[in-house]
Each structure stands twice: as C-alpha cells, then as structure tokens.
C-alpha cells in the first residue's frame, strides 16, 4: 500500500468555538445571548457528567458511567478517538518522551485499547514546555497543537463532593492549573471551569484531595 503520509489534523473545535466566541462578544449589546450560544456545544458535556453523577463520585457505578469509564484520556494532540486508535502504531515514543511519565500503554490492552493513555489520578499531563509527546509521534496519531488549543477533555466539578461546599477552604485545583483563570476560577463557594479554556490535562483531578474526586476530566471522546 502506498504511504499516504501524515493525516490532516482534525478541525480544532476548541479553537473554532473560542474564535466564534471572540467574534460574538464583539457585539456588546448582545453579549449574554451569544455567550450562551457559544457554550451550547459544551452543555451536552455537562449533561453527560450529570447523568454519570454517581452516588459517591465520578464514574463510579451504573451502565452509563461504565461506558464513560471505558473512555480514557489520550495524550495531547491526539486525533479523534477512532482515528487515534487506528493510526497509533503503539511504538511507545510518546511514552519515552514524556518527562512526567504520564503516558502509559497497557500491553494487555485492558485499558485504552492498547494505545497510549493518561490516568490523571496516577499522573496527569503536566503540559511540559516542549509538548514532547505530540512533537515526537512519528505516525500522526499525535500532532502538534498549540498549548491553548489542546483538547484532551474538559474538567467537570461536582459541588456536593467539594469541601468548599462544606465551608472549608481549598483552592488546590485552581492553584495547580497550568492554564490559570483561562480554565478555572474560584467564585465564592464554587469552582467554575471554563470549558473553552480547560484543556483536560487532569492536574486538577490529580491534586483534588477528596475521595471520590470533586473534579474530574471527561475525556474528549465522551463528546462524540
Ligand atoms: S505534553 Fe509533555 S507532560 Fe503532557 S503528556 Fe505530552 S510529553 Fe507528557
Ligand atoms: S508515539 Fe504516536 S504512534 Fe507511537 S505510541 Fe505514541 S501515539 Fe502511538
């Protein structure tokens, strides 16, 4: 079979919506309405999280939650889930390149269909300066993406699990986030994730001190 070369990168939905949002907000007189419209694509994500809302924490029980739990975080710059799995050659270069040892390949294919994945509870992507994984991948399964355009997934906060809702002080998710207020903010007793800014690195999930976690990343693949 002839070498078809690297596949074209998919349309970056995060960048698309961010651009759209910028344009929409140019019309100050209708600022609220367009903001809501721009966020509509992410409403489905929140619904998914809500339907997955467990008795005790993210993804812990039930059929819907099981299907969500079968989806894993892929390294930054990954093609959409189906293409990623078929394009990745499992060469392991990204695993070796990651300075945080965040990327794993399960040889038994029990997790991630044998392709590279990130378990944020164990070790999240630290968004290293060189974005080594995506710049190392020879197959095109991971491709170069600017940091702010990375889309591994989106963090979802669950109020009832967060110790802030019990009037205790905790700002770890906010303080650890490498994107800062572009992605997450503390407003009163609430933690507010900006789905347009969150890149889904999983650092907030990793450092969240509650068990089960009060904040967790829904992988990109869950958006369908
Ligand atoms: S961006 Fe850097 S830290 Fe994040 S998974 Fe890739 S190599 Fe690891
Ligand atoms: S470097 Fe690319 S092809 Fe190799 S295992 Fe990682 S994602 Fe797959």
Structure description:
The chain has one domain. It has 224 residues and is an alpha+beta fold. It has 8 helices and 6 strands. Helix content is 30%, strand content 10%. Helix 1 (13-25) runs antiparallel to helix 2 (32-51). Strands 1-2 form a two-stranded antiparallel ribbon. A two-stranded antiparallel sheet has the order 3-6. Strands 4-5 form a two-stranded antiparallel sheet. One iron/sulfur cluster (SF4) binds next to helix 6.
Itemize the secondary structure elements and their pairings.
Layout: H1 13-25, H2 32-51, H3 63-69, H4 81-87, H5 93-97, E1 103-104, E2 117-118, H6 132-136, E3 153-157, H7 172-176, E4 184-187, E5 190-193, H8 203-207, E6 215-219
Antiparallel strand pairs: 1-2, 3-6, 4-5
Helix pairs in contact: 1-2
The protein binds iron/sulfur cluster (2 copies).
Residues 88-94, 116, 136-137, 139, 141-142 line the site of one iron/sulfur cluster.
């Amino acid at each position: 079979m002839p070498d078809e070369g690297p596949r074209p990168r998919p349309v970056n939905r995060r960048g698309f919506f961010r651009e759209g949002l910028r344009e929409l907000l140019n019309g100050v007189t209708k600022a609220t309405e367009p903001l809501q419209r721009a966020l509509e694509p992410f409403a489905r994500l929140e619904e998914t999280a809500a339907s997955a809302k467990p008795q005790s924490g993210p993804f812990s029980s039930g059929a819907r939650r099981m299907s969500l739990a079968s989806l894993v975080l892929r390294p930054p710059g990954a093609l959409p889930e189906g293409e990623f799995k078929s394009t990745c050659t499992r060469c392991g270069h990204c695993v070796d390149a990651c300075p945080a040892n965040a990327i794993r390949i399960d040889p038994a294919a029990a997790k991630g269909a044998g392709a590279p994945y990130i378990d944020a509870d164990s070790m999240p992507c630290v968004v290293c300066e060189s974005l080594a994984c995506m710049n190392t991948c020879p197959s095109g399964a991971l491709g170069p993406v600017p940091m702010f355009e990375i889309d591994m997934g989106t963090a979802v906060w669950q109020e009832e699990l967060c110790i802030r809702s019990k009037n205790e002080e905790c700002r770890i998710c906010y303080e650890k986030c490498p994107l800062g207020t572009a992605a997450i903010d503390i407003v009163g007793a609430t933690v507010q994730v900006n789905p347009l800014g969150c890149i889904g690195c999983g650092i907030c999930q990793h450092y969240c001190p509650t068990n089960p976690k009060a904040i967790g990343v829904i992988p990109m693949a869950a958006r369908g």
